[in-house]
Amino acid sequence: MNKFLIGCAVSALATSGAYAQSTGSDTIENNDAIVVTGSRLSNGVGGVVIPDIGKTRTVLTQEFLSHQGAGNTFFNALNQIPGVNFTNTDPYGSSGGNLRIRGFPGNRVALLWDGLPLNDTGNYSIYTNQQGDPEIIDSVSVNLGTTDVDSPTPSSAGGIVSYRTIVPTDKFGALFDGSIGKFDYSRFFGMINTGTLTSFGTKAFFSYSQQHYNKFTGAAGDLYKNQFNARIYQPIGTNGDFVSVAGHYNRNRNASYNNGLASDFATNKNFDNIDSCTLSTPGRGTVQNDNVLTAAGGANNLANTGSCTNYYGLRINPSNTANIRGSSRFTLAPGLIFTFDPGYQYTLANGGGTNVVSETDLRLRGANLAAGVDLNRDGDFSDSIRLYNPSNTRTNRYTALTSLIYELNDSNRVRVAYSYDRGEHRQTAEWGYLDAGGNPYSVFGGKYDEQSRVLNADGTVFQNRDRESVALLNQVSGEYFGRFLEDKIQLTLGLRAPFFERNLDQNCFTQVSTGNVTCGARTSLPATAVVVPTDFTNATGATAPATNYYAPFQRTVKYSPLLPSANVVLNISGPHSIYASYGRNFSAPSTDNLYRSATVTPEGETTDSFEGGYRYRSTKVQASLSGYYTDYKNRIVSALDADPESPTFGTSIDRNVGDARAYGFEGIIAVQPIQQLSFSPFISYINTRIKDDVLGANGAILLRTGGAQFVETPKWSFGTRADVDLGYITFGAQYKHTGSRYSTDDNGRTLVTTAANGQTVGQPFVLTGLGNAPISANGKVDAYDTLDLDARISLAPLGFEQTFLSLRVDNVFNEYYFGNISTAATLSNSPRFRIGSPRTWQAQIRFAF
Description:
Layout: H1 2-7, H2 23-30, E1 48-49, E2 57-61, H3 62-65, E3 84-88, E4 97-101, E5 104-105, E6 110-113, E7 116-117, E8 137-144, E9 159-165, E10 173-181, E11 185-193, E12 203-214, E13 222-236, E14 241-255, H4 262-267, E15 316-333, E16 336-349, E17 354-358, H5 362-365, E18 384-388, E19 392-409, E20 412-430, E21 463-484, E22 489-506, E23 509-511, E24 517-518, E25 530-532, E26 548-550, E27 553-559, E28 563-573, E29 576-587, H6 591-595, E30 605-617, E31 621-640, E32 652-674, E33 677-679, E34 682-690, E35 694-695, E36 701-703, E37 716-725, E38 729-738, E39 741-742, E40 751-753, E41 760-764, E42 780-781, E43 784-794, E44 803-810, E45 818-822, E46 832-835, E47 840-848
Parallel strand pairs: 6-9, 25-26
Antiparallel strand pairs: 1-2, 2-8, 3-4, 4-5, 6-7, 8-9, 10-11, 10-47, 11-12, 12-13, 13-14, 14-15, 15-16, 16-19, 17-18, 19-20, 20-21, 21-22, 22-27, 22-28, 23-24, 23-26, 28-29, 29-30, 30-31, 31-32, 32-33, 32-34, 33-37, 34-37, 35-36, 37-38, 38-43, 39-42, 40-41, 43-44, 44-47, 45-46
Family: Belongs to the TonB-dependent receptor family.
Keywords: Cell outer membrane, Membrane, Receptor, Signal, TonB box, Transmembrane, Transmembrane beta strand, Transport
Subcellular location: Cell outer membrane
């Protein structure tokens, strides 16, 4: 019954073994003429597939994804893969979340959809809430710590997460989902398959979904999501050639969750943004100051309605994203195959934000230093008024992946590949006005809405950030694949050569000591400001004077590492095989790092990754046990900038902690001993260590990172999924244990310095006032366990053959834990946290024909 119901939502692609990133990688890994996975690759067990390739990869199919909750991000299912840890911000997935793979953060993992790279072109962030609806996903593939030779990304040191779209069905059909749940959750999904439209096999599908629910903390705040998807597929001949075009549009309007200090949650278990905002009443001849309204009680005091800094209506995360994905394969001659995957993406998004501005602020007074700007229109310039200042990012991105594959003979194949990726990244922060209730007139501030836009006295746009960059990747790569000794040995050798550059155009003045910016005319700087040349360096190595600024500048930064890889598979006998691999990977610095200085060029992060393992693969069992060692040079870690005053508020900020290493093992076994029962337990262990302390210019220890474990990385994690099929009724259970995690680079060990005499106290900084918060005084977040249950009943006995009802309960025991962590260098730098979702229920009905 399970397989029958799932079959109405997926296509024949689920049995093709197409689990790699691009059409080129699929072709070289899954073509029967030179078997890597082809005939040996089963449909998996319980939706889990272990491909027989020379690297650690796990695949989850639609069979597995369909049990993860209607509308939830597919990343939530990845928690059942060893070595992967994903923390969902809310129970339904629209608020995003944090991904970790073998200690690497999400911005060091390449995310691909039908081969199209989806990481942010500026800071490489992954936006899990903007991905395709789970119903249109055929499979999700995770490479742990390795890449493919044509991976089109300058930041993939931690591996790859890749997902593929279903192929439209040959017969006409439709599928409709309706679901409701806790926190006023409601969702509708509909999909139409056209069936074969022409005599030469053209077929298509079209889908639409809409979703709405409330936040589970705080007094107010909703999350809305609308999504469109479509794909047209044209087979060519009978040898696997095809042309396909797919499209996607996603619109989110989200009230954000407040990342709080541990002490915030100790005081209020359900800490979040406040639900109201009181602004001053305009009055000519009197002084209005919206900052004064926030003086008593602080920004998170629910009783203080003037504390608008954390008002939910100003802490929003609107996004509009779209892409067009092409895929194609052509057999040019016997043994010669060409693949071409073009794509285009568009993004417009921000993280909200607010600030109070004086009507005589230098930035507002313009080039002629006018008296000021009457922001509240009361006829004077004596006020300080709250405005909306979101940091808008607009991206236009163009991608093309090509591969030319030549089969030398039945046992040897070569590939040459070229990847092109150009991201035009425009980042601005046009200030906007608020209405009487403290809400922005436009969620994008003054970017497009002229009525909302704040203008300087000289008529120019009042900006908090103004920069433009082009991220350009030209990559060439080559790969050899062969099999020897009667197919007992499969060998792959590869070389990836990315030529990556960032062309930067900073239109604001940049403070040398902090990297903060001031936008506007030269006269908007403080009177004491010193504008230094772009080749300025501080000869003493000490902190630059606060009055020193770089003038607006342009610069180009280039990176061109050579990244070799090799792997081998030894098929021992029958279902048994062992494998080993080596790969060098690279992650280039983000735009935020490069814009902080007109002169400093940070090094990129490189890793050398070694791994090996054993596999057993049959129709009843899919199992893998692997071990790995990763050596890092110039390790880069990331944290969310939670400072509302910062020009990079709401974005990920990178920092370097030097060299490091990690090693560990992972195991998973998916078993179906009888037709009615399947289960897939897994376990993961990782031992991590930063090698050295971070030193200052005079050799003093700035951070005691030597010997510290990686932030946000559990040493142990394990769990399982189990399914029982009783015919018309199925039951499922899903469990995961996530071990304790550190929230700071120094693991809470950097010593405190007294203000009185500058001497260090022989005790590290500790967190206080934690109460029952799930964290220790040294910033180590407690381990946690979650259990999810689901049940499904078919209505076929009532004559509705392709209809079922389902019920799901997440976090059954209502575990209270910190999920997302916005890490920091030390505890004194205030790491921030989000609690995990509480017990949540969801009911669904699916109808198909």
